[in-house]
Design a protein that fits this description.
Number of helices: 8
Structural class: mainly alpha
CATH architecture: Up-down Bundle
Radius of gyration: 20 Å
Number of strands: 4
Length: about 220
Amino acid sequence: MTRSAQPLVIRLTHWVNLVLLTIMAGSGLRILVAFPQLGEVGHAYRWYPFRGQPPPELVTIGGWLAGARHWHFAFAWLFVVNGLVYLLYFVASGEWRERLFFPRRDARHAWLTVLHDLRLRREAPAPVGLYNGMQRLTYTGVLVLAVLAVLSGLVLYKPVQLLRLERLLGGYDAARAIHLITLAALCLFTVVHLLQVLLHPRTFLDMTLGGRREGRP
């Protein structure tokens, strides 16, 4: 029999995430404007190339520091709720078997996919279910980034109350760096994701209308 390639819950949480992450990114960058430094005072991170340079006003939301914090934390909780809905469905429905990266099943396939995309291999590897190995690796990586974003964000929100988590992440300034890095990584993923959608428009239809895939009886 056939079933939906992208179940309704997956589609809804996907599009809700798009809205929430856009608002959180803009408000987060507005918060960064208030102190565009990374690292403890007098001990800046040398690897951070934009130290002291605030992000452009065009990509910020909130107008000022307090306003941006209100936007950011309000939508952050909605992001957590949306993530929990997705996670519960993800586990209960068994979708994790199809979407998560498992090295024994997917590592070789991911590598062959990269070689094909770089034009170093003529034939694309045979598909393994709904996603190829590289897609599963990326999908899993994004989930890890989302968890890091939430954990580091909690440290920035309540550093005293969550002292153990703060220490686990390397301190307040390290948590701030992790939070910014996850934002950059998610933005990079979004750009690549949009390019892939342009190359394969059917994926947009599947994520909007559901699509069909072969299922087991």
